[in-house]
């Protein structure tokens, strides 16, 4: 018996093909009946011209570019300028503006070429005339701290005036205790003289936008030094 599917030879008593395993007791599969043509395809079956696909394609190129398409960034214009606080960038050159006189300077310069103020110097806290600065220096020479108060530096003025008064009272109290007290009061007298001597010159530095000699850091060191010296010298005087 030959298999109707693969034409392989099998025994007459076989119920299925030993090569393709087709069963002999099943009727052969019927040939597929052609389906009726689609009504949309009938015209071109007659004319021989296939219909045009009118389905929009996702990949079809657009005739016009979208209005919101990203445009390439324009190249930076030459001669650009930028300012960040006191520093500025102008036509490829960086620099800084003086906080005292307002003149521009090169970035490599640490002091102003016009007034000599430092790069980090702020403008004077109060706009005073030269005569007012002179009067403030005279007041500072008479009473330490008063000139700073008149020129708009209350922090420095109060600190100077307060320490001078405190050390003066301490000197008077220690002086009444005899020789040991007088010796212990010497560091406070030195502190008073330092504050008194540097006052007018520091006002001149502030007027010109420069750092004072007795700035906040040195003033703190002075107070600490006087305090330690009073303790040490007082102990020495008490042992005499």
In spatial order, strands of the major sheet run 1-2-3-4
Ends apart, CA distance between termini: 143 Å
The tally of strands reads: 4
Specify the number of helices: 7
Shape: elongated
Biased composition (Low complexity): 49-80
Region (Disordered): 29-80
Transmembrane segments: 158-176, 219-238
Domain RanBP2-type: 96-115
Describe the protein's topology.
Layout (H helix, E strand, L loop, with lengths): L41 H6 L33 E4 L2 E4 L2 E5 L6 E3 L23 H13 L3 H5 L3 H22 L3 H6 L1 H22 L8 H24 L1
Antiparallel strand pairs: 1-2, 2-3, 3-4
Helix pairs in contact: 2-6, 4-6, 6-7
Description:
The model has no long low-confidence stretch (mean pLDDT 77). Strand 2 and strand 3 (93-97) form a beta hairpin. Among the domains are: 89-123, Roll (SH3 type barrels); 130-239, no CATH class. The protein has 7 helices and 4 strands. It is of the alpha+beta class and 240 residues long. A 4-stranded antiparallel sheet has the order 1-2-3-4, with no helix packed on it.
Relevant terms:
240 residues, alpha+beta, SH3 type barrels, four-stranded antiparallel beta sheet, 4 strands, 41% helix, 7% strand, membrane, zinc, metal-binding
Briefly say what this structure is.
The protein has 240 residues and is α+β, with helices and mostly antiparallel strands.
């Amino acid at each position: 018996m030959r298999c109707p599917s693969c034409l392989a030879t099998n025994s007459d008593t076989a119920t299925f093909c030993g090569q393709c395993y087709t069963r002999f007791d099943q009727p052969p599969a019927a040939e597929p009946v052609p389906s009726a043509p689609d009504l949309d395809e009938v015209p071109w079956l007659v004319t021989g011209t296939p219909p045009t696909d009118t389905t929009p394609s996702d990949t079809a190129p657009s005739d016009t570019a979208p209005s919101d398409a990203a445009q390439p960034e324009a190249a930076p214009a030459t001669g650009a300028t930028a300012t960040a606080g006191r520093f500025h960038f102008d036509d490829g050159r960086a620099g800084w503006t003086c906080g005292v006189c307002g003149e521009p300077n090169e970035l490599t310069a640490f002091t102003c070429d016009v007034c000599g103020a430092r790069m980090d110097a702020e403008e004077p806290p109060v706009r005073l005339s030269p005569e007012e600065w002179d009067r403030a220096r005279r007041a500072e020479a008479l009473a330490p701290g008063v000139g700073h108060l008149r020129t708009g530096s209350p922090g420095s003025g109060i600190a100077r005036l307060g320490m001078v008064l405190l050390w003066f009272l301490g000197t008077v109290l220690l002086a009444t205790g005899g020789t040991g007290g007088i010796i212990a009061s010497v560091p406070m007298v030195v502190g008073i003289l330092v504050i008194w001597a540097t006052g007018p010159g520091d006002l001149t530095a502030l007027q010109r936008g420069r750092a004072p000699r007795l700035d906040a850091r040195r003033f703190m060191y002075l107070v600490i030094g006087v305090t330690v010296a009073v303790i040490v010298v007082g102990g020495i005087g008490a042992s005499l």
